[in-house]
Amino acid sequence: MNGRKSKKKIIDIPLRLERFADNPILKPNPDNWWESKAVFNPAALYEAGKVHILYRTISETDVSYLGYASSVDGVHIDERLSKPAYVPREPFEGVQPAYNIGGGTSGLYVSGGGGMGGCEDPRLTRIDDRVYMTYVAYDGRNPPRVALTSIDFKDFLDRKWNWKKPVLISPPHIVDKNACILPEKINGKYVIFHRVYPNILIDFVDDLDFDGKTKWLAGQHEIPVRALSSDWDSRKVGCGPPPLKTKEGWLLIYHAVGCRGDYYYKIGAMLLDLKDPTKVLARSRKPILEPVAPYENEGWKAGIAYPCGAAKIKDRLFVYYGGADTVVCVASVKLNGFLEQLMTNHKESAMPEEIEPPSTELEETAELVQGFCLKCRKKMGMKSLRQVILKNNRHAIEGVCVRCGTRIIKFIKAAPDVKKKRKILKNKTNKTKQTKKQPKLNTPGRKKKGFK
After folding, report:
1. What is the mean pLDDT of the chain?
2. Cα–Cα distances in Å, from 275 out to 82, 109, 127, 193, 203?
């Protein structure tokens, strides 16, 4: 060894979560009207020797409630309550018919069913003697917003659901989702992650005493989608569970959708700086879990793996996610090896932009476009619109059906600006080729083709 210390060789193996063999761990319960249609997008909190799971449900009346279950080993459910742990109770959660002006719902913001509003996609964070819950509040018509409530830690463990009166913390008229709170302060301030399409936003606030009227999240910092050269997280990204503190940094599990190919929700991982969580140290180059299992494709919406909860049990990381907007699933991995791979082989670096982007963003709240839905078997309105260029170079408007959430593609003619870019690029390429060939034709002593 000549007195030199040998460096430990890091093998670049795929960064992957391992699915639990008996997934899904929770399915809809037809015996309970409030969770009979779907159970998905679970928050998780590991305390007092068990994982406490708060999951979104779809009731018989298409209202979203929150149910409770727990697990000692992280994968097998030991307890599941027969009554909701959280029930919609405010106008912004759709409990008053007068809130839906004109009657019915618009369908523009329906996510995973539950078109009549309610409480969606919770995240849990314990800070001192309270458990804070952020969630998406939807009234059935207006843009979904981030809401905040909390509960005494002992009451939470005892399953006494004395939740504090909820308040909206994101501004009106803006679709804001995927909010979670860091479990400790940074430089004396609370850190709140949330998502306004298409990026993850981060706010530092002095306190969590929002009044629901004058104080809103501002989106002070952002973690953006990747450059267009990424095929899986270049369209939109959102926080999953609240980041977990590790020696290497804050581990953030996130979900993402890419610009190309499918419209599937996949799971990735980031490491954020411990002192400055706006700084990304590492980011998985590829998804750590993709929706390929049957239970991630058979349900309200195909191709969905949507994480909202995580827990560290002994040496393993457990990630809890919704499959196909219908069931609750879990996947895990040995944490130390996972972090070592992420930090060593997935350090964040800038990715070059492409000359011709594969898509052009359209407003999420654009007027409805009609497309043929294969599931509904007729023309339906489309939401989440985006102009895309498919592999066969055909241009299309991509979106999802406002009724069932099925992906719809409507072919269109190429946009003039895209055609113009192609023409300019082609002319530049031809000009470059001619310039390179010209000196060869005029080289002294060289015989020109066709002459002796």
Report:
1. 83
2. 42, 36, 18, 15, 14
pLDDT level of residue 10 (50, 70, 90 thresholds): low
Closest to 24 in 3D by CA, of 9, 12, 42: 42
Same domain, 311 and 375: no
| CA 248 to the chain's CA centroid | 23
Domain extent at residue 397? 359-438
Cβ-contact 318, 311 below 8 angstroms: yes
In this structure, the answer to whether residues 285 and 430 fall within a common structural domain is: no
CATH, residue 286: 2.115.10.20
Q: Is residue 277 part of a domain?
A: yes
Query: Could you tell me if residue 160 is left (phi over 0), alpha (psi between -120 and 50 degrees) or otherwise beta?
Result: beta
198-257 pLDDT, tens per residue? 999 999 999 999 999 999 999 999 999 998 777 899 999 999 999 999 999 999 999 999
Are residue 127 and residue 66 in the same domain, yes or no? yes
Asked if the structure places residue 142 within a domain, the reply is yes
Q: Which amino acid is at 302?
A: A
Q: Would you say 381 and 370 are in contact if contact means Cβ atoms under 8 Å apart?
A: yes
149 pLDDT exceeds 50? yes
